[in-house]
Amino acid sequence: MRWRPRLAVAVGAVALLTSAGCSSGSSGDSPNADGGAGQTLGANDDNEQEPRESQEPQEPVEQAGFDECGLFETEELAEIFGADTLYITGRFIYPQGDGGRMAGCSYLTKDIPGIDGFKMSTVAGTNQEAFFQSWEGYERGEVDDLGDHAEAFTLSDSSDSAHMGLLKVLDGDTGLNFQYSYSENDPGGMPALDEATLGQKMAEIAVLALERLPEEVTIPDGVPEGPCADIDLAQASGVLGEDLFAARTVLSDTGAMTCEFTGNSAALRAIVYTDPVLAGNMSVPSEDINAPEIGDGALVQINPESPLLEATVNAGGERVLSITGTYAQAAGAPDAPGPEDTELVQAIAEALAG
Fold first, then answer.
1. Measured between alpha carbons, how far is 270 from 321 in angstroms, rounded to an integer?
2. For an engineered disulfide with 341, which of 60, 138, 179, 337 has Cβ 3.0 to 4.6 Å away?
3. Beta carbons of 298 and 289 less than 8 angstroms apart
4. For residues 319 and 99, what is the distance between their CA atoms, to the nearest angstrom?
């Protein structure tokens, strides 16, 4: 195979390509084009989005059996990458992603839902033009003997400390995305792999995934689990301007979790972080709190560039809640958070309170 030589890009571009999500969960999301439900350790923002694709709305799909995390056991992936262990840290679904219906799974060497080092997504009902469209303008190289068409990308930030490799494979009308990220500043994260080794391992996983895919991939809407099921989706759908009909959940024994909800263009992601270091770094300083009535204080704001509803809640103890809401394309976003936005954040915080 031909693995593209590393392409140096600005830090902002790397953050966009490695986020998510989940983004978190990633890559989480508008929904984003590569299904990012999370972020890599060392990244600064897990809420950046890929541009939305212009597609006709898709009808919700009835429950079926495809499991986006079921193609591999975590032990198998850990052995391939040379990691001691891997945990499932995110699940995501985008009814419109990469030209079809996308669902994916995120993994990390630490049990921290919302953060990822490797993520894999499956896209049902796509085509070559739509599947590779979101990466137009980036240098890439074709990969031989994988599906009907495959392309690979490798990226690093300007300081060469954060690295990402991406492999996209199309076989018939089913697409597969494989994204691996590591940071030299996080020695406890994903193993540092040189380009040749990373290319070989990603191709090995791609071959196995192609062999294991069912003849027909039907991605179910899913239902929220645990505390995520207590989030009022009617309220969230009303605020974001579109029905949120698809859901994914990841729960940790530590009380951390990711709650993902998506519609055709609107999305909601809520992540509870319980890792002491991460929660400490993410907590809202007292001078930045603009919603003191939520939890132990929260920062609620509108990101005008995306546009997104973004909130960080000091949830008590070593717990921080991150909320990202993507407004429906037709609804648009307000210039500043209104009472309904703040009330939604407060309701989610209460639903997920430990």
1. 7
2. 337
3. yes
4. 37
Residue 74 CB: number of other CB atoms within 10 A?
Answer: 15
Report whether pLDDT(7) > 90. no
Mean pLDDT confidence for 144-172: 86
Residue type (1 letter), 272: V
What whole-number distance in Å separates Cα of residue 250 and Cα of residue 271? 9
Residue 277 CB neighbour total at 10 angstroms:
11
Q: Is 31 helix (H, G, I), strand (E, B) or coil?
A: coil
Strand 174-183 and strand 246-251: the pairing is unpaired
Confidence of residue 46 (pLDDT cuts 50, 70, 90): very low
| Residue 307 pLDDT | 80
Task: State the alpha helices, DSSP H only, in the chain.
Answer: 11-18, 74-81, 128-133, 195-212, 233-240, 276-282, 339-351
Question: Cβ of 339: how many Cβ atoms within 10 Å?
Answer: 7
CA dist list (Å): 106 to 36, 96, 319: 9, 19, 21
Hunting for tokens 């084009």 — which residue is that? 33
Its pTM stands at: 0.82
CA nearest to 81, candidates 168, 165, 177:
165
Nearest alpha-carbon partner for 6 in 144, 136, 156, 192? 156
**Residue-level length of the chain:** 354
Residue 157: per-residue pLDDT: 65
CB 201 within 8 A of CB 81: yes
Cis peptide before 220 (omega within 30 of 0): no
| Residue 195 binned pLDDT confidence (cut-offs 50, 70, 90) | confident
Q: How far is CA 87 from CA 24, 108, 112, 253, in A?
A: 15, 5, 8, 12
C-alpha 242: how far from chain center: 20
4 vs 136: CA distance, rounded Å: 15
User: Could you tell me which residues come within 8 angstroms of residue 197 by beta carbon, excluding any fewer than 6 positions away?
Assistant: none
Cα 195 to chain centroid distance, Å, stands at 23
**Would you say 240 and 266 are in contact if contact means Cβ atoms under 8 Å apart?**
yes
| DSSP-derived 3-state class of residue 171 | strand
